[in-house]
Amino acid sequence: MTTASPAQAAKTNAITQSWALSVRAIVRFARQPTSWIPGTIFPLLLVAVNSSAMSRVTMIDSAGFPPGTNFLMFLLPAAIIQGVMFGGINGGAELATDIQTGFFDRMVSSPVSRSSILIGRLGGAMAFAGAQAVLFQLILWPFGADVVAGIPGRLILVAVAVVLALGFGALAAGVAARSGQAEAVQGFFPLVFITLFLSSCFFPTSLMTGWYRAIAEWNPITFMVDGMRHQVMYGLSWSEAAIALGTAAAICVLGLWFAVTGVRRRIESGGV
């Protein structure tokens, strides 16, 4: 009979603890409808308003809409990204609440792995983002928001949503660790929302002009949403999927660095 080395045992414990904390985050999130209902309804309302007001954009030749597509299909990736943004920020706000209530300090003083504290919280945001990406596709499908790439394309949309949730959630967790205030994390929302409007989320960049178009074309969100949109409107493209996933992964790396350094700084400073 072989005995696990201390390193292997520590790794196993970290995975178990991360899973347990992720389940706690999911259950707590589900029990607080005010945390997820606005983030589910608002993107759908915005899609309904925009698709109704700008449906004739598909008739403009320079917009580049392929035959048989509609503006609701164009907006489907934007709705998913909006939902992910809400979920990620709520995940960060929950971490700030843990800090304010003292739960974070109790976890730090316990034998729980430091990485599990952060991963557990972000795991909840990732699970919510995946469920929300599926839900949005199911709700908008009967109204014409089909995905030309079929099942593989739908799975790509879900995968991008999950990775992006880790990125947005980590950025919000970094703000939470540095400020210790849920209000500060909620204040992070307008900044992220502006980056969505300064991208191709809600309107084709080919119809933009001037500085607005220049910013939108170089906005990383545009690379990601265009890669997702290609699956919805043109068909399966692994290269476009790689661009979308790669951009989400880059945001993820930046967010994790911001979150890890923030949590480490809070622990080293004793929560001051």
Descriptive terms for the model:
77% helix, 272 residues, single chain, 11 helices, mainly alpha
The major β-sheet equals: none
Tell me the distance between the termini: 47 Å
Mean pLDDT: 85
Coarse morphology: elongated
Instruction: Classify the beta-strand content into a percent band.
Output: under 5%
Helix content: over 70%
Number of helices: 11
| Number of beta-strand segments | 0
Determine the structural class based on helices, strands and strand pairing: mainly alpha
* Stretches with pLDDT under 50, minimum 5 residues: none
Order of helices and strands: HHHHHHHHHHH
Rg (CA only):
20 Å
Overall description:
The chain is an all-alpha fold. The longest helix is centred in the first third of the chain and has 31 residues, at 71-101. The chain has helices at 6-30, 33-53, 71-101, 103-109, 114-140, 150-179, 182-186, 188-197, 210-218, 220-233, 238-268. The chain has eleven helices and no strands. The mean pLDDT is 85.
What is the secondary structure topology, with strand pairs?
Blueprint: H1 6-30, H2 33-53, H3 71-101, H4 103-109, H5 114-140, H6 150-179, H7 182-186, H8 188-197, H9 210-218, H10 220-233, H11 238-268
Helix pairs in contact: 1-5, 2-3, 3-5, 3-6, 3-8, 3-10, 5-6, 6-10, 6-11, 10-11
